C-alpha cells in the first residue's frame, strides 16, 4: 500500500526499512515482498507519479525538470573548476511544487532532449532519478559486457507503440519478454532522418558501423534507441516494480513525503555497529521506523552518503569538525563521485520532417498531445532521439601516452553521441538535428559532503567535472567524432550549417566552449563504492553490507565502483535485483 500520511501507517516496526523509492529501491521492495513473511516499509521523500501527466507522456519528460513546477530537490553543485567555476544545478526529486503539477503547460518549450538527458548548462546535473523514479529520460542502455559480466533477465521486451515491423532494429535473442519493466524501440518514426542515420553507417562503416543491438553487451557502433516505455507510456521502477498488483501485497508499505534525516540508536555488537532506527520527517515532525532485520539505503548517489554522514558514518575528522559524533570511521563515504560530462551540438537542416514542426507550433503540439491522450500513439510516445552512436578514442590517441585507458576493455565505448531530430535552443525557429555528446569514461572524481550538522541542509555536491586532461581531451575528440558522423556524404543536402561551428575553432577556443557549456548528465555513481572485503577503501563489501556495520546494506547506484559506459538506470536495476537476492539469501 502507498501512504501519503504517516498517521495512516499500520506501525513503525518492519523487518526491512528501505530508504528511497528510486530505480533500485523499488526493485528491492518488490523482490523482498515476494516473501510473504517479510514486512517492508519504504520511506520516500518524493511524491506519487499518479496523475502526473508529464511523467506518463514520454515526450514531455522535460517538463519534469524545468519550470516552476519541476520535480527536483533544487540542489546546485559547488563551483566547478573544470567548468570555469560555474555553479550548475543538480536536480533531484522534490515535493514542494506538487500541487502545481499535473496539467500540460502551454508555455512548454523544447530545449531538446539532449539538454535534458545529457544535461547541459541549462539543466546540468543530477543524481536521482527522481522523485519516486518517474523522471529519468527512459533511455535504456545496459553498458558493455565488459562493464557488466552479467545482466539479470528482468526486462520485458515490448512492441513499440506504433507496432511497426522491428526486424533489423534489435536482436530478440538478447532480450527477455517476461520480465517486469517494459523496454521498447521507438513507437514513432522520423523516416527521412532515420534513413540518413542508417545510410551514414553504410558510408562510414569503420568508424560508425551499424550495430543491430547495442544492449547485446557489445555496444560499439550505431544502434536504434531503446527506452523504458511500454504502450507509449513511461515504464519505470515506480510503474513496474510498484505496479498495483505488487502494491496490493499486504506486506509492502510505501510512505511518501517522508524525508529520512539519519539512522539512530547505534549499538556496537560482534558484527559491527547496528542502528536501531531510521529517523524521518513529515509535516515538520520527526518519526522513527525500526527494522527488525535490516536497514537498506537506496537513496541514490547523493541521498545515501548524506544519510550515512548525518548518522556519523564517514570520515571521522570531517564529521567531528561539523559537530557530528563519529560512529564508524569510513573515509570513502561520499568520495570517488563519478559523473559523465555532456555537451550538445546542433545543425540546421533542410527538412520539414523534424520535431521542431511540432514544438514550434501550438496547434500541432496540442494535436499531438490529444493523440497521445486518446490512443497512446503519435510523436509523444517517445523522445525525438532515434539512435545512439557508441565509439572509442582512436587507439593511437596521444592521450594514451601518459594516461591509462580508463574503459573496462576494448569493446567498451569512451564516447556516446545521441542523435535526434529537433533543435535544443529554446525559442529557436527553423528545423534542426542535434547530438548529445557524452564522455562515458571520465577519470575526474568529485565528492558529496555535508556543510553542517543539520540533516536538512543541502549537501555540497562537487562533481569534479572535467578536472583531468583525459576528460577534456575526450570531450574535444567526442565533438570531432560527432562532426565526422555528419560529414558522411548522405548528410550533404540535408544539413545546412552547424548552429555553432565547433569544428573550426582553435583548440583553446574549443576548450573554452566546452568548459562554458558542458554539464553533468545525471549518471552519478560510486559515492558509497563497493570494494573487496579486506580493502582499506570503499564503503560496502561485495555482499552490499556496509563495512564495519551490521544490518545495514546499500542497494543503489552509489555502490558501483565505476560508472558503466552507458546511461545508468539499467545498472541500477541490476544492483537492485542482485542486492535483493543477497538480502533474501541472508534471511532465508
Ligand atoms: C534528469 C535525469 C535523466 C536521466 N535519464 C536517464 C535515462 O534516460 N536513462 C538512464 O539509464 N538513466 C538516466 N538517468 C540516471 C538514472 O535515473 C539513475 O542512474 C538511477 O535513477 C539511479 O538509481 P538509484 O536507485 O541509485 O537512485 P534514484 O533513482 O535517484 O533513487 C533514490 C530515491 O531516494 C529518494 N531519496 C533520496 N534521499 C532521500 C531521503 N533523505 N529520504 C527519503 N527519500 C530519499 C529520492 O527521492 C529518490 O526517489 C537520469 C538521471 C537524471 C537525473
From TrEMBL:
Keywords: FAD, Flavoprotein, Glycoprotein, Oxidoreductase, Signal. Its cofactor is FAD. GO terms for molecular function: flavin adenine dinucleotide binding; oxidoreductase activity, acting on CH-OH group of donors. Residues 300-314 form the Glucose-methanol-choline oxidoreductase N-terminal domain. The keyword Protein biosynthesis does not apply. The active site is at 523 (proton donor), 567 (proton acceptor). It comes from the Eukaryota. FAD binds at residues 103, 260. InterPro entries: FAD/NAD-bd_sf, GMC_OxRdtase, GMC_OxRdtase_N, GMC_OxRtase_C. Belongs to the GMC oxidoreductase family. This is GMC oxidoreductase.
